[in-house]
Structures are given as structure tokens and as C-alpha cells.
Amino acid sequence: MAQQEHHQPLLLDNTNDSSDHDELEETAYDSDDKVHIVINDAEASDDDGSKTPPFSWKKLWLFTGPGFLMSIAFLDPGNLEGDLQAGAIAGNSLLWLLMWATAMGLLVQLLSARLGVATGRHLAELCREEYPRWAGYVLWVMAELALIGADIQEVIGSAIAIKILSNGALPLWAGVVITALDCFIFLLLENYGVRKLEAVFAVLIATMALSFAWMFGEAKPSGTELLLGILIPKLSSRTIKQAVGVVGCIIMPHNVFLHSALVQSRDIDHSKKGRVQEALNYYSIESTIALVISFVINLFVTTVFAKGFYNTPLADSIGLVNAGQYLEEKYGGGVFPILYIWAIGLLAAGQSSTITGTYAGQFIMGGFLNLRLKKWMRALITRSCAIIPTIIVALVFDTSEDTLDVLNEWLNVLQSIQIPFALIPLLFLVSSERIMGSFKIGNILKMVAWLVAALVMVINGYLLLDFFSNEVNGVLFGSVVCAFTAGYAAFIVYLVFRGITLPRWCKSKSVTDALN
């Protein structure tokens, strides 16, 4: 049954007459199947809300959480595979690109958070409101396909880790089934509150950081080479494919939708401009810290494989399936075998990313379709779309590394296709004064954002062209691909035209309306 998902924000508690302006209290309540944190702040009674309150470490801590959940998409098994291949084939020469790609991803995620905080609605809801029904359905299908592709990669990554940790006793398909059950763990954690869920993700990120830092210490890469790789841009014809992969896998379409929803777990008073700006400031700080940590973790993985396999005959054959085996052969066992350390980090990456994928799927489905289903039903639908084909693949190709690598290439293409359908609506919405009010982005930021979006789409276009030029054979298949490409390009043109004429079509209540 379709119902409205919006909730009225619970205002900051202005009744506290305490003179201690640093006194903050955190409470929580359930609304629309989500747990919201309410920050009761004694400072709220000191002004009319037009000024941004001074910085507070305590309040930053209360706003910390959504950015770290968002950062999981930068650490999923697909990204780890891109890291290890970039390191093995290009050495440390692409570390500068990894840093700037992460910065581009941060910009997109900050715009997503800005949209959610300023409007009180997430991207999927706004797309449903601002586009015709048919266009909304197309955007929903594209978002779901991107999510399914990402989820399959994440589930396979977890299954590979489980197979390693069980010494092969659990085949790939068993790992897929075990990973499928994490959606129910997620539902259980969510019932205990969003802060408990965020704490679990903090543990998983810490597990990844410790595992890959341990590997980094075992490999003992050159600090000078690492620093030169970060500071000096280098690119050769041999590493162009890895360079494209580093940039292409940073921006995940479902993550753009997710972040705009996650930031609404903290209730702010949208009638006070200062409170909205305060939330934007804290979320910007938190997201930056989270992605700096993700960059360091990705750097650990890249440099470990650069030190061990760069300029070796094995460099071109390393993938997610055999990476652990190659690490063991290179660095040996020791007190804590590096094979298992790698597997622990990979398992943490896979498990955390599949849970955030389930979370994103619920927001995407609820936002685009305005459906209110029970949480377990939404999770079951979202996960089944990914788990069923993954189990089939695992059963048929459990021992075929080449087949899994080809599957991964197809999934990367699937996600690359979807990127414009998240970026284009996002950029037009955050640029609209009618929707964002005084929180719309300025001309300089708009120009930078569009340049980043154009760069990412061109790079992914290169991936698509390269992939299909090698894979498309036969007149019939070629005709189908050409027809799809034409429809794909036409819909992108429609989104751009609709965005340019957004003020004419806009139906959403603006932030300015709320402030007035």
C-alpha cells in the first residue's frame, strides 16, 4: 500500500534554560521504519536560528555515522580488485589518480548529502516528484540494476573470503548463501537503533584498516616510491585501462541515492537556516574524514600488490579470486598467514557493502515507488535479485577464475551505464533555487561538479566502448546493442533537457518555503 514517507522533523529542544551551552543530549525515536536521532541543544534557545552555532566536538560526534556508511562503497570488493590490479600492473604510478578520484567521489557525495539535508527528502523521492511517472520508472529500473550489479560483486567477494577462511571446506555457493543471511542481521541491528548499526560498520571499517595495514607492514613498500606515486602524475599506454578502472569504480550510483537518505537520520529544524547550515558543516567534515580513511585503505592494498607483483609475470593474471593464493606464495605463512589476513579484510569489505546495498535498496524502492512494505519484505526482494543469479554463477563456475573475471567485467559495465542516471538528476536538483533555496550550489561549484560528472561519464563511456568493441560479435547482437545505445543516449538527452527547464516543471516545496 502506497503511503507518504515524509515525517515532520522533531525540532531541537528549546525548553532547556541551562547556561551550559555545551550540554548536548541524544535521544532517538522511530518513524517510517527508521530510527532518527534528535539532538537536544541548549544553544537552540539563544538565537532565532539565523546564525550558524559555533563548532562543537560533541555535536560532531552526534552527527558522525552516515558518512562512514557511505564510505563503504569506496571499499567494496570491486574497488579492492581495482586496487590490486592497478598495483600489480602499474605499480605505485596511479596513486595520484586514486587520490584525485577519491576527491571527485567526495564532491559528489557532499552534493548528495547537501540535497538530503536542505530538502528533508532523499534523491529517489525527489526524482519521483520532479519527473513524469514513466521517467521515474526508468530511473528506478536503472538504479535497481546498478544496485544488483554492485551486490553481486560484493556477495562474490564475501564468498571468496569465506572459502579461504574455511580452507576450501565451504564452496563458493555456500559462501553466497551465508552472505545472503546478513540482511536479516541488518534488520536485527536496525531494530536496536541507528547508532548501534553505525557502530557495527565502524568495527568492520576498522577490521579492514587493520588487516590491510598489517599486509602493508609485511610487504614493507618504499615510502619514497609511495610518496612519488601520490605527488607526481604518471600515465602510460600500458596502464590506461587500470587508470580508467580506478576512476570508474569510485562513484557508485546506488551510493549517491543512499547518502541523501542517510543524513536524514539526524533531525534538524528546517525552519532555521543556521541549523541547516550547521548540519551541512558537520556532515562535510565527517564525510571528508571517512573518505580520507577509505583512501588510506585503498592505498594499502594498491602498494602491497605493487611491491609484490609489479613487473612480474604474474601481474596480468591477478584477480580477486586468486589474489590470496598469490599473496601466500609471495610472502609466506608466518605467525599470522597473510592469506587469512587478506581474507578477513575482504570479508569485512564484502559483508559491510552488502548490508549498505540492502539499505540503499530499501530507500530506492520506497522513494521511487512510494511503497511502504515491511522491512523484511523489502530486504528479501532487494537481496533475492542479487542472490539468485549469484548462486547460479557460483554453482556453475565455482572453480573457473576466468569466468568470474569476465562476469566482473560485465558487472562493471552494468554499473558504468547507470552513472548518468544518478549524477544528472542530482546536479540539476542541487542547482535549483526553487528546490534548495539559499542552499543551492554556486556557479563555481556547479561548474566544477559538471566537469567532474562529465569526466566520469566520458571515462565510463571509454570503458563501454572498449568492452563492447571486444565483446560484440554478430549482426543480431550488434543491432540490439546499437538500438539500446540509441535509446540510452536519447534518455540522457531528455534528462539534461528536463534539468535545464526544471524551474518550469518543479513541483517540490522548497527550503525557502520551509524557512518562511
Concise synopsis of the structure shown:
With 516 residues, this protein is mostly helical.
Essential attributes:
disordered C terminus; 516 residues; mainly alpha; three-stranded mixed β-sheet; Amino acid/polyamine transporter I
How would you summarize the topology of this molecule?
Elements: E1 24-31, E2 34-41, H1 57-63, H2 66-71, H3 77-90, H4 95-119, H5 123-130, H6 133-165, H7 172-180, H8 182-191, H9 194-219, H10 223-231, H11 240-248, H12 253-262, E3 266-267, H13 273-309, H14 323-331, H15 338-369, H16 375-396, H17 401-418, H18 420-430, H19 433-436, H20 443-471, H21 475-500, H22 502-505, H23 511-515
Helix content: over 70%
Strand order of the largest sheet: 1-2-3
Q: Would you identify the regions where 5 or more consecutive residues have pLDDT less than 50? A: 1-22, 512-516
Can you say what the CATH homologous superfamily is? Answer: Amino acid/polyamine transporter I
Portion in beta strands: under 5%
Total discrete domains:
1
Distance between the termini: 33 Å
Oligomer: single chain
The major sheet is characterized as: 3 strands, mixed
Q: Taking all residues together, what is the mean pLDDT?
A: 81
- One letter per element, helices H and strands E, the order comes to EEHHHHHHHHHHHHEHHHHHHHHHHH
By DSSP (H or I, 4+ residues per run), the number of helices equals 23
CATH architecture: Up-down Bundle
Please characterize this protein's 3D structure.
The protein is mainly alpha-helical and 516 residues long. The protein has a single domain (24-515), classed as Up-down Bundle (Amino acid/polyamine transporter I), CATH 1.20.1740. It contains 23 helices and three strands. A three-stranded mixed sheet has the order 1-2-3, covered by helices on one side. Strand 1 (24-31) and strand 2 (34-41) form a beta hairpin. The longest helix has 37 residues, at 273-309. It is globular and about 60 Å long. The relative contact order is 0.17. Residues 1-22 and 512-516 have low confidence and may be disordered.
